[in-house]
Amino acid sequence: MNRKKTGKGQLIVLSGPSGVGKSTVIAELMSQRELFFSVSFTTREPRSGEVDGKNYYFITREEFEGMIARGELLEYTQYQQNYYGTSEKLLQEKLDAGIDVLLDIEVEGGENVRKKRPDAISIFMIPPSFEELSRRLHARNTDKEEVIQGRLARAREEYKEIPKYDYLVINDRVSNAVTEIEAILAAAECRVAKRIHIIEGDNAL
Amino acid sequence: MNRKKTGKGQLIVLSGPSGVGKSTVIAELMSQRELFFSVSFTTREPRSGEVDGKNYYFITREEFEGMIARGELLEYTQYQQNYYGTSEKLLQEKLDAGIDVLLDIEVEGGENVRKKRPDAISIFMIPPSFEELSRRLHARNTDKEEVIQGRLARAREEYKEIPKYDYLVINDRVSNAVTEIEAILAAAECRVAKRIHIIEGDNAL
After folding, report:
1. Interface residue B99 vs chain A (CB under 8 A)
2. What whole-number distance in Å separates Cα of residue B34 and Cα of residue A39?
């Protein structure tokens, strides 16, 4: 009996305010387990240090609207005049191969994914306090004060969506957040919906 | 911020066929973490080695029917002419004190608890194969063959209830089953419903 991976991979939706540290936590998770990070497509400009094909696929507005027209996106949203979206094809190939897929998406995208994929595991990540979020955004030293204030205002709006998520993970330390997500994924492997086929296999009656 | 235990304890329902090894797994879990094992009341005769107040509270039929009449039971059921039931009072005191409570109950009792306590985490434990269950029941060497056949027939009926549970844990090795239950409990601590108060505390907006 294959204990660890049975059937398809799990689709994981991870959201959280800008500055909470999602990228660091994801990198640590990916160093510990097989996990496919679904890179989003966006029409926004790359920030300093961002790499095309790693942080996002940076494409033009025309290219993005072509993907919409061809129905290639699992979800997409607009934020500050830019498109953000997820290609469905590559993601589905990984899930079919039994590989877990993680989406780092905005709350609107998260909601759209949950509607299309009710089995998705949705996780919202918060900092230990709102003051700490402000501190992290300032420490990042990449944004002007008005941009930071915009991100904090945005975070306040995002927090209202937390009740729609399955799990709330606190990133006080990266190792704690990673441990919590590992437990969430391990528990999800034990869900009856994920394992019910077992009693039709070795446990057949 | 209190990370590990926030608010009330979690109510855990554990079911599974006779012989699957629930008692061994529970003992190992209790050696690793704070967990209150809710001892059931029953009118059946103690089996060899069973201790009153540890495995069950062994009481008379008249005493049990008194508890029913006084509304003291969270759930109760009858099986092979005997009553089995759970006292609500002690269990609630532990949950209120932030202590997780584990109920080892039959599938009918599990269903009754889920109805009254929709937040309960329900886990069904199976052996790695049905042949292995038969082997374990014979190895226990406490029951006559006809009793064992009755337990196996009963297991077949219980398996039909698995889709009603949240999680399916496989007891191929005690350490594996314990690890899975630990992950399920750790994930449950991260459920939004369990943590939503946090964003009204340190993360207040």
Report:
1. no
2. 41
Q: Which of B165, B190, B191, B205 to mutate to test binding with chain A, by most A CBs within 10 Å of its CB?
A: B190
Closest CA to B79 of B47, B112, B106: B106
Beta bridge partners of B126: B170
Question: A152 and chain B: CB distance < 8 Å anywhere?
Answer: no
CB within 8 Å: B168 and A124: no
Pairing of strands B167-170, B40-42: unpaired
pLDDT digits (tens), chain A, 205 positions: 445 556 899 999 999 999 999 999 999 999 999 999 999 999 999 988 999 998 899 999 999 999 999 999 999 988 889 999 999 988 999 999 999 999 999 898 899 999 999 999 999 999 998 899 999 999 887 788 999 999 999 999 999 999 999 999 999 999 999 999 999 999 999 999 999 888 776 566 5
CB A121 within 8 A of CB A10: yes
Task: Say yes or no: ipTM exceeds 0.95.
Answer: no
Sheet holding B73-79, edge to edge: B56-58, B40-42, B82-87, B73-79
Structure pTM?
Answer: 0.87
Separation between Cα atoms, residue A166 and residue B132, nearest integer Å: 36
